[in-house]
Amino acid sequence: MFEKYTRKENLPNSLTVLRILMIPVFLLILTVSKSTLAHVFAGIIFAIASLTDYLDGYLARKWQVVTNFGKFADPLADKILVMSAFIMLVELGFVPGWVASVIICRELAVTGLRLLLVETGGEVLAAAMPGKIKTFTQMFAIVFLLFHWNLIGQIFLYIALFFTLYSGYDYFKGAGFLFKDTFR
C-alpha cells in the first residue's frame, strides 16, 4: 500500500522539497529590496537551489531510488524556479520581456508535449544534450545577472535562448508522429 522509504531514498526527494521551499525565499528577497546586495544574496540562493537540482538527480540515479514523487516534483520545481527567476529579472530590467516569454513558453510547450506523450502511451522523451545545455546556460545566466556580471550574464542569456529554441524544436521533432494527422 504505502512504500517504505529508507533515508537514502528520501534524500533526493528532500533536496527537491528544499528547492521548492527556497523559491519563495528567493522571490521575497528580490521583492523586498532592489539593492545590489539583495540581488547577490538572491543569486546565491538561486545557485544553491540549482545545485540541489543537479544533486537530487545524481543521487536518485546513482542509488537507483527514482520515485513517483521525484519524477513529478523535480521537473516542476525546476520550472517554477527558473520561470520565477526570469519573471523577476524582467521586473528588475535585467532581461527583455520577449526573451523571458520565449523561454517560459518553450518550457510550458515541452511540458505539455511530455504530458501528451504519456497520455497517448508514447515514449517519454528524456532530456537530450541540447536541453541539458539549455538548463545549464539558463541557470548561469540568472546567477551572473543577479551578481551584476552583466556582460557574461547577457552572453549566457542569449546562448540559453538559442538552446531553448533548438531543444524545443528537437523535442517536437522527436514527437512529430503525434501531429502527423492533425492538418490533413
Automatic annotation (TrEMBL):
Belongs to the CDP-alcohol phosphatidyltransferase class-I family. The gene is pgsA. Pathway: Phospholipid metabolism; phosphatidylglycerol biosynthesis; phosphatidylglycerol from CDP-diacylglycerol: step 1/2; Lipid metabolism. It is an enzyme of class 2 (transferase). InterPro entries: CDP-alcohol_PTase-I, CDP-OH_P_trans, CDP-OH_PTrfase_TM_dom, CDP_ALCOHOL_P_TRANSF_CS, Phosphatidylglycerol_P_synth. It catalyses: a CDP-1,2-diacyl-sn-glycerol + sn-glycerol 3-phosphate = a 1,2-diacyl-sn-glycero-3-phospho-(1'-sn-glycero-3'-phosphate) + CMP + H(+). It comes from Streptococcus ovuberis. Its EC number is 2.7.8.5. Keywords: Cell membrane, Lipid biosynthesis, Lipid metabolism, Membrane, Phospholipid biosynthesis, Phospholipid metabolism, Transferase, Transmembrane, Transmembrane helix. It is found in: Cell membrane. It comes from the Bacteria. One of its GO terms (biological process) is phosphatidylglycerol biosynthetic process. The chain crosses the membrane at residues 12-32, 38-59, 80-104, 139-163. This is CDP-diacylglycerol--glycerol-3-phosphate 3-phosphatidyltransferase. It is a multi-pass membrane protein. This protein catalyzes the committed step to the synthesis of the acidic phospholipids. GO terms for molecular function: CDP-diacylglycerol-glycerol-3-phosphate 3-phosphatidyltransferase activity. GO terms for cellular component: plasma membrane.
